[in-house]
Amino acid sequence: MIQVYTGNGKGKTTAAIGQAIRAIGQGFRVLMIQFMKGDKSYGEIIAAKNIPNFEIRQFGLPTFVKKGEPSPEDIRLAKEGLAFAQKVIAENKYQMIILDEINVAIDYGLIKLTEVCELVKNCPDSIELVLTGRYAPKELIDLADLVSEIKEIKHPYTKGYVSRQGIDY
Amino acid sequence: MIQVYTGNGKGKTTAAIGQAIRAIGQGFRVLMIQFMKGDKSYGEIIAAKNIPNFEIRQFGLPTFVKKGEPSPEDIRLAKEGLAFAQKVIAENKYQMIILDEINVAIDYGLIKLTEVCELVKNCPDSIELVLTGRYAPKELIDLADLVSEIKEIKHPYTKGYVSRQGIDY
Q: ipTM for the complex?
């Protein structure tokens, strides 16, 4: 099945990681492909090294992509991530594949919606495909079996709040 | 800080588990206390055994609690879970404590809202406290620093759908 976690609130990537952990406990092999992320100091990157059957591959620079002004390297890496996703889906080695922030990669114009729709349509039933990121396009919501929108009700974006190690990364 | 994941969509418990994994990667010790759950065959219970610094303790029966008709054992276990949470918060051994489904335990009348509010107010800043479950009461939302509402946009509750191993448990 196809799952989508979207919306403006905290919890999309973590929901996918938690879904991965649950699946791993039941014997799944899980791959998370991260778009637009290249920072190796994320807690989940460090933790995954010690969790059997959980691989995370990053296809992005450690710096943020500027909306409207992606660098050629941002685009190259996102396309490489999509090609890698197509390859691993075809190989059918993983029972769950998470495409983290793929919705944002589409929204920012790094990869094409039509190509992601093709990938989703061609994904065999034996693979649980999980897509995350704000701005999930209607076409992907229509293709998905399960969609959760994570809405921000409250966030400590008050004066002096900086992202916190272990919580935000 | 205090985080709350509520709403009717899939992703609340998994967001908390993903948050735990991220925190563990950054050196946190994490405890998840599960209310109203007693089934040891959940994927996260099995997986956590192999993840250092991640403990999950269940305070519930393996069967569902009937709303309006909780058994004395349901109530006893939930109260025990709350007392255990109070104890571990006071001990300050964990940097993150997740109270999974505690909102539902309050809504079902197993534990008192006033007692949970006291626990939240008394939690030291050194502990990240994460509360999950539908029906988060306004009082807890007011006390929280971060609240995400996970809304169901689409769920495959169609004919013949049964909960799936590795996905729903």
A: 0.97
CATH fold, domain B2-149, is Rossmann fold (3.40.50)
- Judge contact between A148 and A5, C-beta under 8 A: yes
DSSP labels for A104-134?
A: HHHHTTSS-HHHHHHHHHH--TTSEEEEE-S
Is-above-0.95 flag for pTM?
Answer: yes
CB contact under 8 A, B22 and A42: yes
- Residue that is written with structure tokens 């959980």 in the block: A54
Q: List chain A domain ranges.
A: 2-149
pLDDT at B13 over 90: yes
Q: How far apart are CA B19 and CA A12, in angstroms?
A: 10
Q: Given strand B54-59, what is the order of strands in its sheet? A: A54-59, A30-35, A96-100, A128-132, A2-6, A146-154, B146-154, B2-6, B128-132, B96-100, B30-35, B54-59
User: Which of chain A's residues have a Cβ under 8 Å away from the Cβ of B52?
Assistant: 50
- The residue assigned the tokens 């190796």 is A40
> Residues A30, A95: contact at Cβ < 8 Å?
yes
User: Which residue from A7, A40, A145 is spatially nearest to B161, judged by alpha carbons?
Assistant: A145
C-beta atoms of A22 and B166 within 8 A: yes
Tokens found for residue A19: 């879904």
Whether residue B158 has pLDDT greater than 70: no
Three-state secondary-structure class, residue A154: strand
DSSP symbol at A102: H
Reported confidence tier of residue B157, pLDDT bands at 50, 70, 90:
confident
